Amino acid sequence: MAKASKIGRNAGNGQFTTVKTATNKPKTHIVETVKRK
């Protein structure tokens, strides 16, 4: 069964960030759910 984890991403340039930063700045960041094997 695959597990899912959340990551933060900058919407402008695509760089990874923390989920905390992404939730604090919703205009410029997005939180994605990634399935892991």
Structure explained in plain terms:
The chain is an alpha+beta fold and 37 residues long. It has one domain. The protein is 16% helix and 49% strand. The chain has a three-stranded antiparallel sheet. The N and C termini lie close together (7 Å). Residues 1-37 are annotated as: Disordered. Residues 12-25 have a biased composition (Polar residues).
What proportion of the residues form beta strands (DSSP E)? over 45%
| Secondary-structure element order, N to C | EEHE
For the biggest sheet, the summary is: 3 strands, antiparallel
Which oligomerization state do the chains in this entry correspond to?
single chain
| Unreliable stretches covering 5 or more consecutive residues | none
Radius of gyration, CA atoms, in whole angstroms: 10 Å
Please tally the β strands and state the result.
3
Q: What distance separates the N and C termini?
A: 7 Å
Count the domains.
1
Gross morphology: elongated
As a percent range, the share of helical residues equals 10-25%
Instruction: Give the integer mean of the pLDDT values.
Output: 92
Structural class: alpha+beta
Strand order of the largest sheet: 2-1-3
- How many helical elements? 1
Region (Disordered): 1-37
Biased composition (Polar residues): 12-25
